[in-house]
Amino acid sequence: MHSDIVPRFHDQPWAADAKAIIGACVHCGFCTATCPTYVELRDERDGPRGRIYLIKEMLEGTAITERTRRHLDRCLACRSCETTCPSGVRYGRLIDIARSVVETELPRSPPDRLRRWGVRKALGNSGMLAALLALGRMMRPVLPAALVRTLGQRRPVPAWPQSNHSRVVVALAGCVQKAAAPTTNPAAARVLDRLGIRLVTAPAAGCCGALSYHMGDAAEGLDQARRNIDAWWPLVEAGAEAIVPTASGCGSFIHDYAEVLAGDPIYAAKAGRISALARDLGEILLAEDLSSLGLDGGGRKVAVHVPCSQQHALHLPDLVETILGRLGFAVGAVADKHLCCGSGGANSILEADLGRKLRRRKLDSLTASGPEVIVTANIGCQLHLRGGTGLAVMHWIELLAEALP
Q1: Measured distance CA(26)–CA(22) in Å, rounded
Q2: Distances, alpha carbon 304 to alpha carbons 248, 250, 274, 320, 366, in Å
Q3: Which CATH architecture has domain 293-403?
Q4: pTM above the 0.85 mark?
């Protein structure tokens, strides 16, 4: 697909990328079948091919309208289209570029800016989010049932294992997970401890930056990435063998630090090193002798929701099922597991109606096998799914930690 980007964009650092990505698209349409918003809405402009056309026109000088923004806003950035695409179109990179351009070229209304700013600040600040969650739990009697399920019960946070293993990996304390699921990282630390690996955190690290970056505020997202690099760097220099975020959405963006900071003369090399060290928690476990855990799932029936970030960005679609199967859990089949659950970072809040429809489709697939519990690898998916079902929804590492003898 040929594009003639207008001269005023030529000096932008993303211009060459955008032109190359658009040029790679042969508009075959295979992507539409695996795009959750197209499958649900059946509008060409709400599928990857249609959005690429809209972005092409925008960068060629066609006036950006609210309708254009609407179709780009609806995109979940799930990257299922990338997995399907026979031409290797890097759609995730293109949608990030487009959103950043739209935010600059067509300023939002003050109410919309305030809403999106509030979402970024609330979700990206673990302290603020924890306070909001506590307030929400106090108001349970007057809240809708779905929101009550999303809030969940406050659970005691287990002690972090105290060990002196020579092998060290670094966790991301994060933002949403730290506030809404503070038991996840201690569970990971406990399982890794049994494998002779010490999990540590860097107190100065915070939000990975994905939320702001994917919502069109690239500058804020990159600042958060730089802060994390600075926080982790002493641990890297001390010999940490991997950066292991337990939320796959964070993991996929940390993998992208090298790309998004490639033009930064101060951070490019460090970002490349951090991205090279980034590993999914499941990758760490699968490289070890799992029999040393002494764990037997006992045939407990489990449905695995594979987050888009894990299967399409990190290309690890079968990782969790493989681990659970080896440990004796009965993993149920899930139809259309490539389709997004509707969480999509902040999309389940900003595009709530669409998010609920996609969640219902996903939960129907997950519960078809009659599982006792649903597990996932990403906090956004975990909270979103929890709002639509009475079944327990947890991070898969917590399932393992609970089963440890």
Answers
A1: 9
A2: 14, 19, 28, 7, 7
A3: 3-Layer(aba) Sandwich (3.40)
A4: yes
